[in-house]
């Protein structure tokens, strides 16, 4: 198990750098105003497929590591709204309606927003595939519902597909089991989703939809307002002091493609990006100048020079 986890982590690291570059540069190019409509559409597909490949990598990492989620207060209504934005374009292309029946009160749980969003995205993707296999005249609708049921927060996804044959229901959450055509799925989505929900103290279940189709229900412990914790904000550019020339960012990564992506994106936002390959190269830069933010690949940062020790020893505010 340890070897498998290390192997998957290593492969994921090698895949993430080129995927980040593809996604980042395509997003950078999409910001250009002089693009033809056809070119913009091609770039949008490139960006979406890079994001899709990145999600597959994250799925593999989740399956291998089984990490404990970072706890914070999460409103399931917000999770639905944000995830709906991610799938809206694809659903529109396929002629599928997304009906959101959200509770009028906050449906708050304790957990990791990104992992819960991944669960919902997996369920919506499965529902989309199920409906797409229907004949053209069949109803094409996905319903997402949130509600409170006593001490439980409930998130329910229902589709108008054909449902799951009874003989396959017991295999639904088995790793690598899929009813999709070859090349359309890894068979990890539901098993990963099941593990994520379980790690949050909840349950993911399946039942036939009331009018046919499939219905998946996520039940999680409801977090009362007095118990709610504030979400942990990741360090970013928003809280950093800004001079007239923008902020200074030092990027440390062994992949030159990452440098191009980071410098392009930061430059577009009016910041100055400096990139180097190793911690050894970064150390004198960090000693001689002040940087508002240092983004360093773990292995590159540890590649000689004592960069990590220098940054940890720097006085607050520097």
Strand arrangement within the widest β-sheet reads: 2-4-5-7-6
What value does the average pLDDT take? 76
For the CA atoms, what is the radius of gyration?
A: 22 Å
Could you spell the SSE succession in H and E letters? HHEHEEHEEHEEEHEHEHH
What characterizes the major β-sheet? 5 strands, mixed
The poorly predicted ranges are 229-244
Query: Helix/strand/pairing class, anyone?
Result: alpha/beta
Which band does the percent of strand residues land in? Answer: 15-25%
DSSP E strands, number: 10
Overall form: globular
How far the N terminus sits from the C terminus, by CA atoms, comes to 42 Å
Oligomer state equals: single chain
Helical segment tally? 9
Structure description:
The protein is 45% helix and 18% strand. It is built from nine helices and ten strands. The strands form three sheets. The chain has a five-stranded mixed sheet with strand order 2-4-5-7-6. A three-stranded parallel sheet has the order 9-8-10, sandwiched between helices. Helix 4 runs antiparallel to helix 5 and helix 7 packs parallel to helix 9. It is globular and about 65 Å long. The two termini are 42 Å apart.
């Amino acid at each position: 198990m340890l070897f498998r986890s290390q192997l998957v982590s290593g492969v994921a690291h090698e895949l993430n750098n080129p995927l980040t570059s593809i996604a980042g540069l395509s997003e950078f190019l999409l910001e250009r105003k002089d693009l033809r409509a056809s070119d913009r559409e091609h770039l949008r597909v490139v960006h979406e497929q890079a994001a899709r490949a990145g999600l597959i990598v994250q799925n593999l990492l989740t399956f291998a590591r089984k990490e404990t989620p970072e706890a914070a207060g999460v409103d399931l209504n917000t999770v639905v709204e944000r995830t709906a934005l991610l799938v809206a374009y694809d659903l529109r292309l396929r002629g599928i309606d997304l009906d959101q029946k959200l509770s009028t009160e906050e449906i708050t749980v304790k957990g990791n927003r990104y992992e819960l969003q991944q669960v919902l995205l997996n369920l919506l993707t499965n529902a989309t595939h199920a409906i797409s296999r229907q004949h053209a005249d069949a109803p094409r609708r996905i319903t997402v519902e949130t509600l409170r049921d006593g001490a439980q927060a409930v998130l329910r996804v229902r589709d108008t597909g054909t449902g799951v044959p009874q003989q396959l229901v017991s295999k639904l959450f088995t790793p690598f089991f899929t009813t999709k055509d070859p090349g359309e799925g890894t068979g990890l989505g539901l098993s990963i989703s099941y593990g994520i929900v379980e790690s949050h103290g909840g349950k993911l279940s399946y039942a036939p939809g009331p009018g046919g189709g499939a219905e998946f229900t996520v039940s999680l412990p409801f977090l009362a307002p007095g118990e709610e914790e504030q979400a942990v904000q990741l360090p970013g550019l928003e809280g950093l002091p800004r001079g007239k020339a923008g902020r200074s960012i030092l990027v440390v990564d062994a992949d030159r493609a990452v440098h191009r992506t980071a410098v392009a994106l930061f430059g577009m936002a009016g910041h100055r990006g400096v990139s180097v390959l190793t911690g050894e190269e970064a150390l004198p830069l960090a000693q001689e100048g002040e940087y508002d933010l240092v983004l360093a690949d773990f292995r590159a940062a540890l590649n000689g020079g004592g960069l990590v020790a220098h940054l940890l020893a720097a006085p607050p505010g520097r």
